[in-house]
Amino acid sequence: MGRVKIPRKSTAVDMTAMCDVAFLLLSFFILVAKPKPPEALKVVTPNSVSSIPVAEKNVVLITMDHDGKVYFSVSDMNTEEKKSIIETIGLSKGMNLTDAEKKNFYANPNAFIGVPFTLLKSYLGLSSDRMTGYNKPGIPAQDSTHNELVDWIQAAVSAFANKKMTIMVKGDDAARYSSFEGVIIALKKNDQLKFQLVTNPVAAPLGSELDRKQIALGSKSSDL
Fold first, then answer.
1. Which of 28-42, 75-89, 118-132 is predicted most confidently?
2. Band of the pLDDT at 224, cuts 50, 70, 90?
3. Strand pairing of 59-64 and 47-48?
């Protein structure tokens, strides 16, 4: 006697509920996501084939714009170190900075120091919006006799005494060499002989040795 064949029925899955959940999650992540804030100081960096990511913590950044003006800033993740730096500068220069003025440096992401010590107190007394639009003359750092960047780096070295500090130099492609020379003088005076250059990463030239090496590394990783 032959077996009774049971008719097969197609399986239908209602995806309506799943789609609703997916859209709810997508909406949630869009609402809570924080957009990347605009750069407080725009600099057109030179191109480089380096692909090493820029660190975000324990970073002291020295910036030079297209006019050769020099600026000093510290990673926003290092609030305690920023407090120490502004305390050291205030005491060493006898500025009598108020708590609000100090906070404008260590709690304000737009607080790029780009003024001489004679203007520092008034600069830190500005509101956040006015600090962003303030026409900073830059830190005097043109030569070895009058180089205020030396003091800022010295304060940073002291603040990061128990941590590894990464010094980064970000220069505009059109920056003057004299500004870069002043930065090197300030670093040497503080025995800081290692720093990283911030550049605009681009692909290696086709057919170059680096291009072949990257292709080889890519093929190896795809085989894993």
1. 75-89
2. very low
3. unpaired
Structure tokens at 108: 């304000």
pLDDT of 29: 63
68 dihedral zone (left: phi>0; alpha: psi -120 to 50; beta): left
- On the 0-12 / 13-18 / 19+ scale of CB atoms within 10 A, 162 is exposed
CA distance to 22, 41, 134, 217, per residue, from 129 (Å): 39, 13, 9, 46
- 33, with CB counted inside 10 A (0-12, 13-18, 19+), is exposed
Integer-rounded Cα Rg, in Å, for the chain is 26
As a whole number of angstroms, the distance between CA 60 and CA 152 comes to 10
Q: What is the pLDDT of residues 159-218, one digit of tens each?
A: 999 889 999 998 887 777 777 889 999 999 999 988 888 766 555 556 666 556 655 655
Question: What is the secondary structure of the chain as a DSSP string?
Answer: -PPPPPPP-------HHHHHHHHHHHHHHHHHPPPPPPPSS---PPEE---PPPP-SSEEEEEE-TT--EEEEE-TT-HHHHHHHHHHHHHHTT----HHHHHHHHS-TT--B-S-HHHHHHHHTS-HHHHHH-------BSSSSSBTHHHHHHHHHHHTTTS--EEEEEE-TT--HHHHHHHHHHHHHTT----EE--EE-PPPTTSHHHHHHHHHHHHHHH-
Q: What is the pLDDT of residue 113?
A: 93
Question: What integer is the mean pLDDT of 28-55?
Answer: 57
